[in-house]
Amino acid sequence: MLTGSKVGLRARHEDDIPVLRTELYDDVVNSSRAEGRPWRPITPGSEDSRLVVDDKEQGRVPFSVVELDGGTLVGTATLWGIDDHNRSAHIGLALLPSSRGKGYGTDAVAVLCHYGFVVRGLQRLQIETLSDNAAMLRSAERNGFVREGVLRSSAWVMGEFLDEVLLGLLVQDWKPDSKS
Ligand SMILES: CC(C)(COP(=O)(O)OP(=O)(O)OC[C@H]1O[C@@H](n2cnc3c(N)ncnc32)[C@H](O)[C@@H]1OP(=O)(O)O)[C@@H](O)C(=O)NCCC(=O)NCCS
């Protein structure tokens, strides 16, 4: 397990799956905001890639996020689009509603940076999020990500086009322990 100051990132366990399905992916609005594809329900027991991890998949590493204190499941964190030639990857994060606003998102980004830069030897990490997602923007910026641009009307979300913000962090600018 990879550990931060508040959360740990570990492998997906079988009993995480019904919790994630019910509390995260069955929520149409949140799923539509967090994913770049249309919402559709996940059939219980199906091998949907949002829940069931394929350890052989090279370009995507999904983690379950747990509280360090007690091990309760609080969400998912993913390093995706891993490009070993350009040494870059993207970060994705989704916490259960009851676990938001407690600093877990900021800490999970820090742990994903450690995984990307130290464990995987990447040079650049990237986050795309809706321009009104204050908590994600702040979680990224607290870890040193800088806004590199706005993707105008790039996301179709529940009946309207919304802007996304593109944030990036280079390994040489990364300060592992200081969240400013
Ligand atoms: C986005 C998300 C991962 C952020 O994690 P979080 O644990 O809620 O965020 P934190 O508690 O670490 O807060 C980070 C900062 O945002 C601020 N913040 C938190 N929730 C906020 C909100 N609803 N509105 C405005 N600011 C907020 C916090 O005060 C904190 O700022 P500070 O560091 O200046 O104190 C989480 O809210 C989430 O899973 N949301 C739904 C899914 C999603 O949007 N995923 C991202 C898709 S790209």
From TrEMBL:
Q: Which CDD domains match?
A: NAT_SF (cd04301)
* MF annotations from Gene Ontology: protein N-terminal-serine acetyltransferase activity; protein-N-terminal-alanine acetyltransferase activity
Q: Which GO terms describe its cellular component?
A: cytoplasm
N-acetyltransferase domain: residues covered = 15-163
Q: What is this protein called?
A: Acetyltransferase
Q: Which organism is it from?
A: Planotetraspora silvatica
Q: What lineage does UniProt assign to this protein's organism?
A: Bacteria, Bacillati, Actinomycetota, Actinomycetes, Streptosporangiales
